[in-house]
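=== RUN LOG ===
request id: a7f3
mode: sequence -> structure
chains: 1
length: 151
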Amino acid sequence: MHALIKQSLANAVVVLDLEASDKVNVIRELVNKLQGDKRIRDLDLLEKDALEREEEMSTGTEKSLALHHARSLAVDEMAVVFARLKDPVDFGSLDENMSDLIFFTAAPRKSVQQYLKLTAHIIRVASKGETQAELRAAKSSEEVLKALGVL
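=== RESULT ===
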């Protein structure tokens, strides 16, 4: 695993059993989990950019997975938030399933290659049935990071 990917995932904020009524509230909650994070300069700008990104194109994939992301001037260094939702939310997934496993990546505008590599890695790992079962059963941040192959 590339060092930057491992570092980004190892420093991920993990939220288990997040309660949110729709994808807008999920995105707001995930952005707010980065409050006080030194990698983020402007939380309000990040939220604005994240919501605009979702309006451009849905970030729901398949298998109840959503990979929300925003490249923003508000971000100095990549940050990842993983949330397992208490109740699935509609992210406009390709297979029309509701999403309960959500990754949010905040990346600097200039970090295109690293951002694409990280996103591809998350898709590759989190799309596996075994990984999803481990993420859904996880009782701690450590178990989530282990399921993602970071620990």
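=== NOTES ===
The CA atoms of residues 26 and 64 lie 14 Å apart.
Strands lie at 13-18, 65-72, 79-89, 99-108.
=== END ===
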